[in-house]
């Protein structure tokens, strides 16, 4: 999905490294600018700063960059992977130093940047023909303009991941309705097991399940009506909040004291049957326990299986900064062309555990096979929070509200009132 | 002639520093004050909105909560740090074996980065303490304290553990300034240890007490690293300090101008607190 605030000592080390690296790379790139304007030859070496927001695929990107640099010796790509992409980008913007290529989620920060003309307009670019038009449209809808400012590269999905061995041990079958899921979870709990393992110490980990619940129950016009003041969270999200509270009662006892990393490790080591997280977490789980057998199914939010849609958003989009430097923008497009080759796109999507938007590329992972039909037939719905105002969605604001309310076991109406007041104050500072 | 050369040397030494300080500190601060009267979100166009940001601050529940948390945290931590560090300083000042080694050991936490210390304690609170508590069947402690309403206690513990070292150093310096003969005199008069502390030691290290209180209060009102490293403001907004809100909402949430206004208000409050504190404690200092 987006912004993993994975604060580990390693992340700190990278921050410190980055701080020093950014300074030096800014120098080298400005040197390049001046040498290009004087020399004017395209044979000059171009250095591209490439920001991507997923700490778990840093190595994969490095190896892709290596392949690319071998094909194009004149272009050098420097990967930047800050622990808090939102904040880093906003600071870069304030300084007027945006990375040349950005791979990020289609979140509020992206929308805000696209609206403000930070990215190059890609209308008419041949690259757009290579990817699924549905997701190109999704990005345009999010920005609110019929101009493509980015190319969707990989898309994610929010299913429920399950441990196949434990699933068999409790003699469960794939639930297709909310009631069935709750019955199975209750049964696991009664037999002394843990149905769901949650890493709610990191507030954002509530977002996937919240989005699955809210998008399926609040009605398709909710966001439009919210903006025009016709509805509120308190009016439309009662079902979602009720279901979320029910869901929390089936988590492990210290769910608000465990962070994302520890929750992944616990689930990987068989501490629970189900794990309600996005598919981006599957590679992490497998690296914690390479032997685990995983399966997935779409979150059965409603009691009518034919109505359930899967939450799927653009996990990584590729956008080029409007730098005004022709050589850099051309080099950036070359990098994007390289990434959109079926072989490269398939390789990246498999390693990242995501679905590729590139036409004809399918994810071969058996754990993800049950979800592919939803992607192919378009039974998907975008994340709600991509449309929340920036001050509400960025920096884990609304997730913190949910985290605080759920950890204090507050009522449905108390939860929704807090979301409403957060929405109002965020919309006021837009 | 000589005085001219002297002043030239002074100018050469101070001016570059003053320029750097102005450019990297004073200028951004002034820039922030100007921005606080606009509706800038960090980039793009903006216009002046007068005092609107300051008026909105009064009604912002999140910010009010952040101020309350910051002050509660600062008061508790400042008091605890001073008690703990004075006790350590008294113990280290006694004529015991290896006192130099102990001084070095007790100063060690100050050398470590706050963020690193926070991450280490974060690990202890989330993994080590709950698993020990579980084995001892202490259900109260089996939860990660940072995920409960007591998360602030965890932050206080880390702040005191790390902060006490520096204040201990200052208190030790203070204790060494007390001449031996005053203690001898109080000994001859038959004063108890308790009496000696309250009547002799404490008044004589009063200047150090003042500076320690001011320094501790100042740094704990600006608590940030510990929050980022341990709770990220959670659970919910329970441990969001004011500096944390300024940083996350200002830079991450597109409220740059609004949080600049918050920062200006916070600056004024910090200056007032420091002035009141210096005035209150100065009257009680004694000379010998």
Write the topology of this structure.
The complex is a heterodimer of chains A (about 425) and B (about 290).
Chain A: H1 9-39, E1 46-52, H2 58-71, E2 75-80, H3 85-95, E3 101-104, H4 108-115, H5 133-143, E4 151-155, E5 159-163, H6 164-169, H7 178-190, H8 207-217, H9 222-227, H10 233-236, H11 238-248, H12 260-268, E6 274-275, H13 282-288, E7 294-298, E8 310-311, E9 314-320, H14 326-339, H15 342-352, E10 355-356, H16 372-377, E11 380-381, H17 390-393, H18 397-407, H19 412-428
Parallel strand pairs in A: 1-2, 1-3, 8-11
Antiparallel strand pairs in A: 3-9, 4-9, 4-10, 5-6, 5-7
Helix pairs in contact in A: 8-11, 11-19, 12-13, 18-19
Chain B: H1 2-35, H2 52-59, H3 61-93, H4 99-111, H5 114-135, H6 151-176, H7 180-188, H8 193-204, H9 206-221, H10 225-230, H11 242-252, H12 256-282
Question: Overview of this structure, please?
Answer:
The complex is a heterodimer of chains A (430) and B (288). Chain A is α/β, with parallel strands linked by helices and 430 residues long. Chain A has two domains: 9-155 and 313-369, 3-Layer(aba) Sandwich (D-Maltodextrin-Binding Protein, domain 2); 159-311 and 388-428, D-Maltodextrin-Binding Protein, domain 2. Chain A is 48% helix and 11% strand. Chain A has helices at residues 9-39, 58-71, 85-95, 108-115, 133-143, 164-169, 178-190, 207-217, 222-227, 233-236, 238-248, 260-268, 282-288, 326-339, 342-352, 372-377, 390-393, 397-407, 412-428; strands at 46-52, 75-80, 101-104, 151-155, 159-163, 274-275, 294-298, 310-311, 314-320, 355-356, 380-381. Chain A has a six-stranded mixed β-sheet, sandwiched between helices. Chain A starts with 8 loop residues before the first helix and ends with a helix. Residues 1-41 of chain A have low confidence and may be disordered. Chain B is mainly α and 288 residues long. Chain B has one domain: MetI-like (MetI-like fold), CATH 1.10.3720.10. Chain B has twelve helices and no strands. In chain B, α4 packs across α6 and α6 (151-176) runs antiparallel to α9. The mean pLDDT of chain B is 88. At the A-B interface, α3, α4, α17, α18 and α19 of A face α5 and α11 of B.
């Amino acid at each position: 999905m987006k912004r993993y605030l994975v604060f580990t000592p390693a992340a700190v080390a990278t921050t410190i490294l980055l701080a020093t690296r950014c300074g030096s790379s800014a120098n080298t790139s400005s040197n390049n600018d001046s040498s290009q304007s004087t020399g004017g030859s395209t044979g000059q070496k171009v250095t591209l700063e490439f920001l991507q927001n997923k700490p778990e695929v840093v190595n994969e990107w490095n190896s892709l960059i290596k392949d690319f640099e071998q094909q194009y010796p004149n272009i050098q790509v420097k990967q930047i992977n800050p622990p808090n992409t939102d904040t880093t980008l906003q600071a870069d913007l304030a300084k007027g130093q945006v990375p040349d290529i950005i791979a990020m989620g289609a979140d509020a920060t992206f929308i805000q940047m696209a609206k403000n003309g930070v990215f190059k307009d890609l209308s008419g670019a041949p690259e757009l023909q290579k990817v699924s038009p549905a997701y190109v449209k999704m990005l345009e809808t999010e920005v609110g303009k019929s101009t493509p400012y980015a190319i969707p590269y990989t898309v994610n999905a929010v299913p429920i991941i399950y441990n196949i061995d434990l699933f068999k041990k409790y003699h469960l079958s794939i639930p297709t309705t909310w009631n069935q899921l709750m019955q199975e979870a209750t049964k696991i709990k009664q037999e002394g097991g843990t149905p769901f393992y949650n890493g709610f110490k990191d507030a954002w980990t509530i977002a996937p399940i919240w989005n699955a619940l809210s998008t399926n129950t609040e009605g398709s016009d909710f966001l439009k009506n919210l903006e025009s003041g016709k509805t509120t969270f308190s009016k439309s999200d009662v079902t979602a909040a009720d279901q979320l509270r029910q869901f929390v009662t089936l988590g492990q006892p210290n769910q608000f004291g465990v962070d994302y990393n520890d929750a992944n490790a616990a689930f990987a080591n068989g501490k629970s049957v189900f794990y309600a997280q996005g598919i981006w977490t599957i590679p992490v789980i497998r690296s914690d326990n390479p032997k685990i057998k995983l399966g997935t199914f779409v979150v059965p939010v409603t009691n009518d299986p034919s109505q359930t849609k899967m939450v799927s958003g653009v996990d990584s989009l590729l956008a080029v900064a409007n730098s005004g430097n022709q050589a850099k923008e051309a080099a950036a497009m070359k990098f994007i062309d390289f990434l959109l080759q079926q072989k490269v796109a398939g390789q990246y999507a498999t390693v990242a555990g995501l679905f590729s938007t590139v036409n004809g590329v399918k994810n071969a992972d058996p754990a993800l096979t049950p979800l592919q039909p939803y992607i192919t037939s378009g039974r998907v719905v975008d994340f709600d929070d991509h449309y929340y105002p920036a001050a509400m969605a960025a920096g884990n604001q609304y997730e913190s509200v949910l985290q605080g309310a759920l950890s204090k076991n507050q009522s449905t109406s108390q939860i929704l009132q807090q979301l409403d007041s957060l929405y109002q104050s965020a919309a006021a500072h837009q | 002639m000589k005085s001219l050369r002297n002043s030239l040397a002074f100018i050469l030494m101070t001016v570059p520093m003053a320029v750097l300080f102005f450019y990297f500190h004073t200028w951004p601060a002034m820039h922030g004050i100007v921005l606080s009267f606009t509706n800038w979100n960090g980039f793009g166009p903006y216009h002046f909105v007068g005092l609107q940001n300051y008026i909105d601050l009064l009604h912002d529940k999140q910010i009010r909560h952040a101020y309350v948390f910051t002050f509660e945290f600062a008061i508790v931590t400042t008091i605890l740090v001073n008690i703990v560090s004075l006790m350590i300083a008294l113990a280290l000042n006694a004529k015991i074996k290896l006192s130099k080694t102990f001084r070095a050991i007790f100063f060690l936490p100050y050398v470590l980065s706050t963020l690193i210390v926070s991450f280490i304690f974060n690990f202890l609170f989330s993994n080590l303490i709950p698993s020990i508590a579980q084995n001892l069947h202490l259900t109260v402690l089996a939860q990660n304290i940072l995920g409960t309403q007591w998360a602030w206690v965890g932050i206080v513990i880390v702040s005191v553990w790390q902060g006490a070292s520096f204040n201990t150093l200052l208190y030790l310096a203070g204790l060494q300034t007390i001449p031996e003969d005053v203690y001898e005199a109080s000994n001859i008069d038959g004063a108890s240890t308790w009496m000696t502390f309250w009547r002799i030691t404490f008044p004589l290290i009063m200047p150090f007490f003042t500076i320690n209180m001011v320094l501790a209060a100042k740094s704990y009102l600006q608590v940030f690293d510990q929050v980022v490293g341990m709770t990220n403001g959670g659970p919910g907004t329970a441990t969001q300090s004011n500096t944390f809100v300024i940083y996350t909402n200002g830079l991450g949430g597109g409220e740059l101008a609004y949080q600049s206004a918050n920062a200006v208000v916070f600056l004024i409050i910090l200056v007032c607190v420091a002035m009141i504190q210096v005035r209150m404690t100065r009257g009680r200092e004694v000379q010998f």
